[in-house]
Amino acid sequence: MRPRGWMSRCGTVIPDSGHDVIVAVYLQGLAVRRLGARERPWGSMALYTTERIVRAPREKVFQRWVNIIPELPRLFPDWLADMRIVEDRGNERTMRCTEIWAGRQFTYTVRQRLFPSERAEGTVIEGEGKGSSELWTFDPVAEGTRMRMTFRTKGAMTLLLVLFRKRFAREFEGRVDRWKQAIEASVG
What we know:
The protein is an alpha+beta fold. It has four helices and nine strands; from the N terminus they run βββααββββββαα. The chain has one domain (48-187): 2-Layer Sandwich (Alpha-D-Glucose-1,6-Bisphosphate, Chain A, domain 4).
């Protein structure tokens, strides 16, 4: 249970290219002395969710999503400087990534757990945004597969998402669209 006044929440819906994107920002421990709040350690988290319909069966979409990771820097050099799998143990893998967001380069290591055809969960274990997480779900729908991505940021990534939320949303939505197109093109 959080102490009273410890967490504030604000949420916005940003219509972007026909998709409603929910952006919710959680700020913890804001120490504002002139308002009389007690001093608390800084900490923050932001949540971003988006989804796309991929015109292919769930199993194929998931398999292609898993296998496309090493190809992403070649397919999208403007936003992925480097992404490589450093350890692969079947349904758990560790990746080293260098991404470009709002003109700034972020390097981190993420541990990803795969639940075939259903979902993938990732947690940043080292580098910028340590503690951030991602959840990809793949749900069958009449048109194919609903691919949903939920991204919870911590650290510098939260600041980026809060300060540059419109640019972040535009870049993120563009990247997810391009990723969807790459998956559709490869699964036939």
